[in-house]
Amino acid sequence: GQNIDQPTEMTATEGAIVQINCTYQTSGFNGLFWYQQHAGEAPTFLSYNVLDGLEEKGRFSSFLSRSKGYSYLLLKELQMKDSASYLCAVKDSNYQLIWGAGTKLIIKP
Amino acid sequence: SQTIHQWPATLVQPVGSPLSLECTVEGTSNPNLYWYRQAAGRGLQLLFYSVGIGQISSEVPQNLSDSRPHDRQFILCSKKLLLSDSGFYLCAWSGQGLDTGELFFGEGSRLTVL
Predict the structure, then answer these.
(1) pLDDT above 70 for B99
(2) Alpha carbon of residue A84 to chain centroid
(3) Which of A30, A66, A98, B57 has the smallest number of CB atoms closer than 10 Å to its CB?
């Protein structure tokens, strides 16, 4: 079967750095997405990786290793507004998205 | 610019009642359209997707049905709701072609079946 694993919940301090991991086993691979979802709202796109390596976009970076079936989302200089769930999703060989359950990130002052 | 809107935002329905959720996209043509359901603590579950008018694919056979009467309109229906239909329903669109396929979501509809 297809599976996306990410931690259920993480806690970090305002101003710090946090890394959210995602491992996947899917039938084929055509890219990995990270989305941010605030409570009660729809997900919004953060990043897309299809090749190995690090993609940086402001305070957020996303890393991919296809050989290891592994990605992480790195958030720097954490702000209270970063409190949200972070969803990892992989596009499989049929170009369908397989979603993880999401990681709830709690930021403390 | 492209926008997506779905409604209603919140609804509380008794078991056995009908359901209709609507979604419209503006500013693009021939989008791929999707209906997802999100239960608490679970990943997004794909219910239906459509790559064109009248073309509907069902991922999860349930008491739900779908229609795409126009290029940019997507409707999710049920004739008789079950308790298990409660959840957060999300409509989304993506562009055609083998690009990144980034999804753009509507505001979401929270359904509570009592």
Answers:
(1) no
(2) 12
(3) B57
